[in-house]
Amino acid sequence: MILMNKDKQEKRVYIIDSTAIMHFFPNDKIVNEDSYLIIPDILRSEIKSFQAKAVLEVMDADKRLVYTSPSEHSLMTVKEKAKSSGDISSLSKTDIHVVATALDFPGSYVISDDNAVQNLCSFLGIKVETFSFKIKTRRTYFWKCIGCSNTFKEKIELCPECGNKLKRFYKKKKIKS
Ligand SMILES: [Zn+2]
Predict the structure, then answer these.
(1) Are residues 74 and 143 in the same domain?
(2) What's the gap in Å between 141 CA and the centre of ligand 1?
(3) 149 in the same domain as 124
């Protein structure tokens, strides 16, 4: 799906996550810009508070709000990348849908203040806009046993070697801005 305006020029597309809904108003640039705002269906169904619903009404006032669900292919891609970066244990199903929706709209921006969402976007080459918190390094997480120091790529509860607990660590790389 390509969203175009009357001048056949592509409009900016923003994918909104749950942290972004509550911080929507202060961002004049996005409020005033002629852009499309996309909310994954799964997030829409989670919105219960009066305040958040009011934000959605304002977003939809000029009919630029779009609800959609990500493709299965994008969901798979995002889940696989989240496993390899180690973000998967920090992400909700909704977070996964937000990032997968961004993959369905090449060139789109994810709006999120969430650390894990931003980290995953950085691995997938997805641009991010934030309201208050922006990560500066990209992290690949791993888990290390506090007993025998064995390391694991994925989160597990107890070390299969010695039964001790695991702690999360990460390798980091600076993000070029
Ligand atoms: Zn161990």
Answers:
(1) no
(2) 17
(3) no
